[in-house]
Amino acid sequence: MPIGHWFRISGDHPDLDLPTTPPGTRYLEDNEPATDLALNPALGTKERLRRFLGKHANAPWQGRCGFSSITEAWNSAVFASRFGKCGSMVVYGGGHDDYFGSDLHAFDLHTRQWSRIDDGFISLETEAFGAGAVYPYAEYENGSPLPPHTYDYVQYNPAGNDYILFKGQRELGPNVKAVAIPHMFNFDTLSWRRGPQHPTAILNSGGWTVWDDKRRMMWGHSGDAGGGNAFLSFDPNGENCDGTFGSWGEIFSNKLAGEANHNAMSVDLTGDIIVISVHSRNELFAIDPNRPEKPILQLRSSANKPRIQEFAALEYAPGLGGFVYYSATNGAALYKISRPGGAGLNDQAESIWNWETLLHEQNSLDPIADARRTSAHNVNLSHTFGRFRIASYADIDVAVLVRHVTVPFTHVA
Predict the structure, then answer these.
(1) Mind listing the domains of the chain with CATH numbers?
(2) Contact, 228 vs 260, CB < 8 A?
C-alpha cells in the first residue's frame, strides 16, 4: 500500500485487490435496525405492502431523515483501538429531528466488515420518540442515550475500552433539550453506563473534545449555540453513590466566545499541548493542559497552511510526530502540522508551526467526490468531525474516514 494515497477498503469493489466482504457487512446501512424484521416487524397492511414493493421500512425511531443521519446529521465517530484485532471505527448519533435511533455500529479494520454492536432502544410506540418524549437522565428505558448531533463530542478511552459521549439530550425533535450528562459504552461488556449531570455547564450544539491519555480524562469545549458556556474535563473512572460513573473537573468559561462552534481539538502528549483549529480566525490556538485556567494562545503557522474550515478534523499521529488536519471541503487533500522546538507553551506560540501536504501527487481517489457520486442519500459534503481518525500500529499511522452509510469505507496510508 503506497504512502499518501486514498483507498476504498469496503463496498462491492474495494481497492488494493482486496476481496469483497460477505453481503450484509459491506456498508453501514446493511445493519440498519429498521430493516431487521425481528426488531421492526411490519405492522398493518399498508406497511406490509410498502415492504413488498421494495420500499424502505418505516420505524417509529426513524425521525425526519432516517438512518442516513447517523453520519450526515452533524455526527462524529471514534477509532476504538481495542475493539477487534486491528481496532474498529464506531459510529453513533442522530439528533434533533433527524434520527432517534440509539443503535451503535462498528467497522472492524481487520475483517473489513460492518456490524451493529448494539440495537439501541427499540419500541414500536411512536410516542416513545421525538417531541414530547422527555427522558430526565438523557437515556432511553434500556439505558442507551438519546442520540444528539454528536458534533465532536465523542472520544475513545483506550484504558477503559470505552466510547464516551460528552453531552446528552433529554428530548429530541424540533425543540431539543440538551444537558451536561455524559454516557459511556464499554466494548468489553457491550453496555452503557451514565455519568453525573454537571450542575452549571451548558454543553449545547457545535462543541469539540479530545481524549487526554496522560491524565486519563476527556477535555471538552461547548459550542456557542444555545448558550454553551464551558471548557472542562470529564474523568470516566469510578462509581458514585447514586449509581453514576465518573466525575467532572473544574469548569472554566468559554475560551472562544462567539467563535466556539465547529472547531476541532487534539493533544500532543510529547509536547503536552492541546491544539485547536479555529475556522473563524483561520488560525491554530493552544491550551496548556497543566494550566487549563489560562487563556488560549494563538500559534503562528507557515505560509502553506490551507484555509481552516469548520466541521474539520484534527488528529495527532504519533508515527508522524505531528498533527494531521483534514477537511472534506478540501477533497482528498490532508496536511501534517509539525510542532516547533521549545520547552514551554510560550516558546511554541512564538515559533512557526510548519504545514506540509501528505497527499501523494499521483493519488487518484477523492473520497468526497466519490461519496457525492455514489451515495444513495443526501450527503453533507463539508462534514467530517471525528469520522476522520488516525489508527496507529507501531510506527505506522493510517488515516481512516467514514464517509456515508452507503459509500465504501476509505483510508489513506
Answers:
(1) 6-412 (2.120.10.80)
(2) yes
